[in-house]
């Protein structure tokens, strides 16, 4: 099968013109020298003299921006106000003796404002520098992504038309790409340079503002923003005015709608801080308009995928930068396939706002009603995500990785792999998705080319009747699988809801309403922080999905008599697996389940881990949680570390099917959702509420504290096994028991007769009913008791730091028999990294 797309796809890197060093070193060097000269001299498109957009790269650019920015009355007023506040903060006596005069404080404050502006703003003044950087990127991209950078001609034409319109009206293009890799920054700027579009001012984290490199990036268009600026009203005012200045002058702007790189392969929820700085000036009339340009960036292979897995497993994040990634010798020696960049249809932000306001009726007023303004801003954020998903390209690596992770069994033969890839391509395109252009090559050729790109993640046996492929590093391969799930999320939710009945009886018939509908509502609501659903609303999406699965012969709609005790005597519609789907072994139905099961399992892990948040002493219901005892509260970071260890433990004991479900990012989303649902209470402060020893905590170091909502606490739990304290770096031995009979202490006697109940266990059971069952799970009658018992042991974990001398003193202060499981204990992090390739 040959795969082709409507509309022409072309590579912008001129890779064939440059050639390959390894094939012909002399020819490569000659062509490289000639290419360098053309960039330096600025011939043809390399001159970057006829770009579309407001004027950039001229000597006075930075000074002109700074002059207009500092002339803003709001900045001067805020600076003077803070100086006056500092002046009044001095005591009367201090002002008389040696206090600073108000004028001196105002001058110092204004100097500080200038420093913020200098560190923040882009400084696009040198065209020679940007040509040099384009030359570097042209050859770097050729080396890393040997199959080129591809865009669609029709999308480029639409972008060019929007850019010409924006230039004529002196408005900005707002580029809003997804964020997959550190090299997104350079790739986007290189593409726009190559296409002759005005380069944008690019929002970059201040972690990139390092000596020499930081200045270089500023001169290429980067402006630096703090990761958080919270209550810093001065910084917020300067940033707001800087955005207004760029918008008034019609300069293009770029920032990542997700705020950070996606480490799971799928789109993250939108971060609205930067978007708000674009949205409000147009809404409030400070700026006339801006053109929104959502963008998708797809990589055959992401350079940082291995480090992403380490972070998701809970390994402390290493400080890394774009240049550390690009400078790695191992990276520069590899070939990562191709990059596909897609532009969604540009649209006017002003027109979008007007359409949304009219659609919501006359009572909707985002200008004067803050809640309405936030609603509209959030709608814009999700619209951008939807636009990015609509043009996103599914790469060959994602196709192969998805098939390997959605089939039962140890592996798959080459012919069967090609057959399933063809099926997946057809299903993606049927849903309006985009698959990378195969350039006339057959699916078999593409599969054969993709396998070597994933050689570290996929195993292969060639000493059999036919080549057999199997997943080796499932966790890292899941990053590629997750690039597909947004296209099938409706089917995934419905399949998981149906699975809770089908798993015990393949011919089970499930009443569509209310049973299947209510289960789907529950799953959809539970996972709302993970996925972007269709804008038609849940009921419409549900009915459409039921119809589509039936049309695809995956399921069948049948009529069944009403259940006993039903209020109606009419026949009811039910859903069941079709006869054909049962004949082929649930192959297509399982595909949808395999896509979503890892996410469901993560949310089940999050829910079951809340048993470790339950305090020892009974608590009374309290809406705010402020009446809880201090020991009911746990620092968020400590609790997350506990959950990671707990998750790994029950995975290796066989109570979880997917190691990628022990995933820090998805767990954070799960806990956010459980907080929204009222299971978790949060408090931010130096110490927990009602603490009598607040002085023992670090001053000015606010911590996020978590507690289980009292109404979700279970009663009658057996006491956790009285295990001894375990000191970091010390091997466990018999003498560590300190006189405790170890075998008796860890016995199940107290837990065997225990039967879980209560709201929390009901929630765990509800989520668990949609999980995968099979050979990777210990499906026994005591599984619930065993897992809760481990969760209660986890409740006793604490964090103790210090040397061996002070450690002993600290341990004496702890409660007796408290289990010490520190970060890195039993080399948990290192072990996970080593085992990653075997899971």
UniProtKB/TrEMBL annotation:
Biological process terms in GO annotation: fatty acid metabolic process; glycerol-3-phosphate metabolic process; phospholipid biosynthetic process; triglyceride biosynthetic process
Subcellular localization: Endomembrane system
Membrane topology: Peripheral membrane protein
Keyword tRNA processing belongs to the record: no
Keyword Transferase: yes
Superkingdom to which the source organism belongs: Eukaryota
UniProt GO MF annotations: glycerol-3-phosphate O-acyltransferase activity
GO cellular component: endomembrane system; mitochondrial membrane
Keywords: Acyltransferase, Membrane, Transferase
Cross-referenced Pfam families: Acyltransferase, GPAT_C
CDD domains for the chain: LPLAT_DHAPAT-like (cd07993)
Domain Phospholipid/glycerol acyltransferase: 173-300
PANTHER family in alphabetical order: DIHYDROXYACETONE PHOSPHATE ACYLTRANSFERASE, GLYCEROL-3-PHOSPHATE ACYLTRANSFERASE
Annotated family: Belongs to the GPAT/DAPAT family.
Protein name (database record): Glycerol-3-phosphate 1-O-acyltransferase
Native species: Synchytrium microbalum
């Amino acid at each position: 099968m040959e795969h082709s797309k409507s509309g022409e796809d072309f590579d912008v890197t001129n890779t064939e013109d440059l050639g390959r060093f390894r094939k012909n070193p002399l020819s490569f060097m000659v062509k490289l020298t000639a290419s360098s000269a053309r960039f330096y001299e600025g011939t043809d498109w390399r001159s970057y003299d006829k770009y579309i957009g407001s004027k950039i790269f001229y000597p006075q650019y930075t000074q002109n921006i700074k002059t207009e920015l500092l002339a803003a009355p709001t900045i001067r007023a805020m600076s003077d106000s803070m100086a006056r506040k500092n002046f009044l903060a001095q005591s009367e006596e201090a002002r008389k003796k040696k206090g600073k005069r108000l004028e001196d404080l105002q001058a110092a404050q204004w100097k500080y404002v200038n420093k913020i502006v200098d560190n923040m703003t882009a400084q696009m003044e040198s065209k020679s520098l940007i040509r040099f950087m384009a030359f570097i990127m042209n050859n770097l991209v050729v080396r890393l992504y040997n199959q080129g950078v591809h865009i669609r001609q029709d999308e480029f034409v639409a972008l060019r038309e929007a850019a010409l319109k924006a230039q004529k009206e002196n408005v900005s293009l707002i580029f809003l790409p997804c964020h997959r890799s550190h090299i997104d920054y350079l790739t986007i700027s290189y593409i726009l340079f190559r296409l002759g579009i005005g380069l944008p001012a690019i929002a970059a984290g201040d972690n990139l503002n390092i000596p020499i490199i930081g200045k270089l990036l500023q001169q290429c268009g980067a402006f630096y923003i703090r990761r958080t600026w919270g209550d810093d009203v001065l910084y917020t005012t300067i940033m707001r005015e800087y955005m207004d200045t760029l918008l008034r002058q019609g300069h293009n702007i770029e920032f990542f709608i997700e705020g950070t790189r996606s480490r799971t392969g799928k789109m993250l929820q939108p971060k609205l801080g930067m978007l708000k700085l674009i949205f409000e000036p147009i809404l409030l009339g400070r700026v006339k308009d801006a053109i929104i340009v959502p963008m998708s960036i797809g990589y055959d292979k992401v350079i940082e995928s291995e480090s992403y897995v380490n972070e998701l497993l809970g390994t402390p994040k290493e400080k890394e930068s774009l240049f550390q990634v690009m400078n790695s010798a191992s990276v520069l020696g590899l070939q990562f396939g191709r990059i596909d960049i897609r532009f969604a249809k540009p649209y006017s932000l002003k027109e979008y706002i007007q359409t949304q306001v009219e659609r919501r009726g006359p009572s909707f007023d985002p200008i004067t009603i803050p809640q309405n303004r936030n609603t509209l801003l959030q709608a814009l954020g999700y619209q951008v995500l939807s636009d990015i998903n609509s043009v996103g390209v599914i790469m060959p690596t994602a196709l192969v990785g998805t098939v390997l992770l959605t089939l039962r069994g140890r592996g798959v033969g080459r012919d069967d792999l090609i057959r399933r890839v063809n099926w997946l391509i057809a299903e993606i395109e049927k849903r309006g998705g985009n698959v990378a252009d195969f350039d006339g090559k057959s699916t078999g050729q593409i599969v054969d080319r993709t396998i070597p790109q994933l050689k570290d993640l996929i195993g292969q046996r060639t000493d059999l009747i036919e080549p057999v492929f199997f997943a080796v590093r499932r966790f890292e391969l899941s990053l590629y699988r997750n690039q597909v799930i947004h296209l099938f999320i409706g089917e995934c939710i419905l399949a998981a809801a149906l699975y809770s009945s089908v798993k015990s009886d393949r011919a089970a018939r499930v009443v569509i309403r209310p049973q299947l509908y209510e289960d789907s509502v529950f799953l959809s609501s539970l996972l709302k922080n993970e996925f972007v659903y269709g804008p038609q609303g849940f009921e419409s999406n549900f009915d459409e999905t039921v119809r589509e699965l039936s049309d695809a012969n995956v399921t069948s709609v049948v009529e069944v008599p009403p259940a006993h005790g039903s209020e109606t005597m009419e026949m009811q519609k039910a859903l069941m697996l079709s006869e054909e789907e049962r004949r082929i072994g649930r192959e297509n139905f399982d595909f949808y389940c395999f896509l979503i099961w890892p996410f469901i399992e993560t949310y089940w892990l999050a829910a079951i881990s809340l048993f470790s948040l339950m305090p020892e002493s009974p608590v009374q219901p309290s809406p705010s949680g402020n009446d809880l005892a201090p020991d009911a509260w746990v620092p968020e970071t400590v609790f997350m570390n506990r959950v990671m260890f707990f998750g790994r433990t029950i995975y290796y004991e066989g109570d979880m099917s997917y190691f990628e479900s022990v995933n820090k990012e998805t767990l954070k989303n799960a806990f956010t959702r459980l907080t929204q649902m009222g299971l978790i209470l949060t408090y931010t402060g130096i110490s927990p509420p009602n603490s009598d020893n607040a002085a023992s905590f670090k001053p000015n170091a606010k911590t996020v504290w978590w507690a289980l909502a009292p109404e979700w606490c279970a009663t009658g739990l057996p006491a956790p096994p009285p295990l001894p304290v375990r000191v970091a770096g010390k091997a466990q031995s018999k003498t560590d028991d300190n006189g405790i009979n170890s075998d008796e202490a860890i016995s199940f006697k107290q837990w065997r007769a225990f039967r879980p109940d209560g709201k929390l266990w009901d929630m765990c059971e509800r989520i668990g009913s949609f999980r995968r069952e099979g050979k990777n799970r210990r499906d026994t009658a005591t599984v619930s008791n065993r897992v809760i018992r481990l969760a209660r042991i986890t409740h006793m974990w604490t964090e103790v730091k210090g040397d061996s001398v002070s450690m002993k003193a600290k341990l004496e202060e702890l409660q007796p028999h408290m289990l010490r499981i520190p970060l890195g204990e039993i080399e948990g992090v290192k072990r996970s990294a080593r085992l990653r390739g075997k899971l």
